[in-house]
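re: the backbone from monday

yeah here it is again, tokenized this time
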């Protein structure tokens, strides 16, 4: 599995070039597209088109080839194979046939964007492309929001404004977002700010909407906001406690406010202990 540049050809690694020169067969997502890259590095290994949705013949050809002792590499149009790109079925089939698969690591838009965003990177969730329709997109975003870690998404130029607008609907206007456009290319641009700031940046110039995008959404709520939400939830618990047990009041308040039940329960216990003193 050989990673190739996501924009800047100079990001092609020496090992990627050597590997592609040495294999007898290169499976490529789009052979015409990859021809330019390969010609640039005087790589003339035979090419074969490969898609996960193409019939299983391509997998069979590749496996037969590998089983006869030959070598093969898979490349995608850009970046790392299998990252929102074909390859999964091939890797699976190769492993099931007892064939070892090795990565030749290199560029990927996920890691490139995450490495410069300035958002928490210890835990992140890569969700690739969101659904094309707004209702499905918002539903997916709601599910992803539950994970409370930095969210990394891919987006195309014609949907970037609609997607960022849906992020505003689901996460709120003030959620922090990072947009990375055209990474490693001539018109590379970044925008870090609230969802409103990033929408304003996109809409301020139609050129800002052009090209390829990675969108990062901060997963956790800002500290001040978290405290405010907890305070509001505790107020709800206080009212519900006039009629309900602590456990029931916390469960209901958690559902009403979205504050985690365990967190709210501990805070409510502390609140009642303090009131009892
Ligand atoms: N396999 C690739 C990788 O490792 O990043 C991703 C392929 S996916 C089909 C293409 C999407 O990746 C684009 O629509 C865009 O969201 C993102 N992408 C790829 N290259 C990019 C770049 N130079 N700048 C920003 N986003 C990029």
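seq for it, each position gets an aa:
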């Amino acid at each position: 599995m050989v990673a190739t540049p996501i924009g800047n050809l100079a990001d092609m690694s020496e090992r990627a070039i050597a590997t592609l020169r040495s294999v007898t067969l290169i499976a490529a997502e789009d052979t015409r597209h990859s021809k330019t890259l390969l010609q640039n590095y005087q790589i003339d290994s035979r090419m074969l088109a490969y898609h996960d949705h193409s019939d299983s013949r391509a997998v069979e050809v590749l496996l037969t080839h590998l089983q006869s002792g030959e070598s093969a590499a898979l490349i995608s149009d850009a970046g790392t194979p299998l990252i929102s790109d074909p390859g999964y079925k091939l890797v699976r089939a190769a492993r099931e046939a007892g064939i070892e698969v090795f990565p030749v690591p290199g560029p990927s838009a996920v890691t490139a964007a995450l490495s410069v965003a300035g958002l928490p990177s210890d835990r992140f969730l890569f969700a690739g492309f969101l659904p094309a329709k707004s209702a499905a997109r918002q539903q997916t975003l709601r599910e992803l929001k539950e994970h409370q870690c930095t969210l990394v998404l891919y987006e195309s130029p014609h949907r970037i404004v609609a997607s960022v607008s849906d992020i505003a609907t689901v996460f709120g206007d003030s959620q922090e977002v990072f947009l990375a456009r055209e990474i490693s290319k001539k018109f590379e641009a970044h925008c870090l700010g609230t969802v409103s700031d990033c929408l304003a940046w996109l809409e301020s110039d139609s050129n800002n909407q052009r090209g390829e995008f990675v969108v990062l959404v901060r997963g956790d709520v800002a500290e001040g906001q978290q405290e405010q939400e907890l305070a509001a939830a505790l107020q709800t618990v206080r009212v519900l406690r006039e009629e309900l047990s602590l456990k029931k009041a916390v469960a209901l308040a958690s559902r009403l406010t979205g504050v985690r039940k365990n967190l709210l329960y501990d805070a409510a216990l502390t609140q009642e202990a303090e009131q009892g003193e």
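The pocket of S-adenosylmethionine is lined by residues 6-7, 76, 78-80, 83-85, 108-110, 154-156, 180, 182-185, 212-214 (CB under 6 Å). Residues 223-276 form one domain.
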